[in-house]
Amino acid sequence: MTDTAKFALDGKEFEYPVMSGSVGPDVVDIRKLYAQTGAFTYDPGFTSTASCRSALTYIDGDEGVLLHRGYPIGELAEQSSFMEVAYLLLNGELPSADELQTFNTTITRHTMVHEQLAAFFRGFRRDAHPMAIMCGVVGALSAFYHDSTDIHDPVQRTIASHRLIAKIPTIAAMAHKYSVGQPFLYPDNSLSYTGNFLRMTFGVPAEPYEVNPAVERAMDRIFILHADHEQNASTSTVRLAGSSGANPFACIAAGIACLWGPAHGGANEAALNMLREIGTPERIPEFIARAKDKNDPFRLMGFGHRVYKNYDPRATVMQKTVREVFDALKVNDPLFETALRLEEIALSDDYFIEKKLFPNVDFYSGVILSAIGFPTEMFTVLFALARTVGWVAQWNEMITDPDQKIGRPRQLYTGPTQRSYVPVAER
Ligand code: CMC
Question: Is 335 near ligand 1, meaning CB less than 6 Å away?
């Protein structure tokens, strides 16, 4: 591609620089467009807009490729650990053995939450959705850890990042415990990040909890698969919130709120609910027909993606992990067969072929999480737990980006033009 792009408006021609990344599409730098032409661009949903530069995650949606700092997600999921991926995303390189141990220790040392935070939980109804609790409690962290909210101090930024990554499993487990009426469990720092989370979620103080290594490995892999995903809606929300100078705890709470939606992180819960509603494979055609019907708002949950127009590489790993978890727990959920059949039928249907709709990360995750014992309301919480690593890494990258500005999109105004106020008696 050339290094400038020409743009013509009202008979005048303008030139804009074209920037190239290390891989992926070039971008046209239109920062001066409004100043020079008086026109904005129109791009609802940012389908053609690069909102920032980033060296964290690369996705090639046509080829079904996902790289973190250059490493393919499949290799990371198979060979790495969530803590190692967290280090990689935050620091740019894989850690040495010593660096990994130090990082693990640092995160471990921050797993406890302020005791007063437990009282905070009691303000919620027992039947509150755990994502509602997460939005509130994570937002409240800035009130508890005010000594790490100065975003201009790199040391405070690092401490806040570690605190968020370390405390989010504790808070997530507390949200679960609160809803089932069981006591909160303090973290056990002799366990791994993921083992500790499983114990805080499923253990009880009355008896010892033994972490099942196969489940721990599967859960850790699920966390890796969700760790980061480029400039998706919640990450962009974190960046937008952060662009005003808001503290990191508030920014991550904003990301959690955005993630909750069924088109984003809420899709894993919605996908399992959909599979339950379908039940047995005979009913699949009925649901496929509904998904294709323009007059029916129903969509196949766990299918389709803004960026992937090919199989989501995370779904491949997820599908494999289902069997591993079933074997480890000696369970066999018939819904997995329904999911496999649904995928098969959808992928041979012209509607899904033409629109390039493939299973995404959420299609199989619900079956695994349910087998492990998580209630559906917790699924999106687990996504938030893992994505906190990506949000924190993206937030740090944004703060140190010299091009960073407060996010302030413009609009195409379609409301009334100026008119005079009419007193109510005359209306
Ligand atoms: N079932 C049926 N039709 C679909 C689906 C689906 N799951 N997804 C997209 N379509 C159709 C849609 O109706 C539209 O058709 P038409 O062009 O005739 O109007 C076309 O495909 C393009 O859809 P879109 O909504 O314009 O695409 P988008 O890029 O804005 O949306 C999406 C992407 C993920 C929101 C959408 O595919 C969807 O709603 N999927 C179901 C929810 C889901 O699984 N979300 C999880 C995403 S992955 C995890 C994450 O990142 O959070």
Answer: no
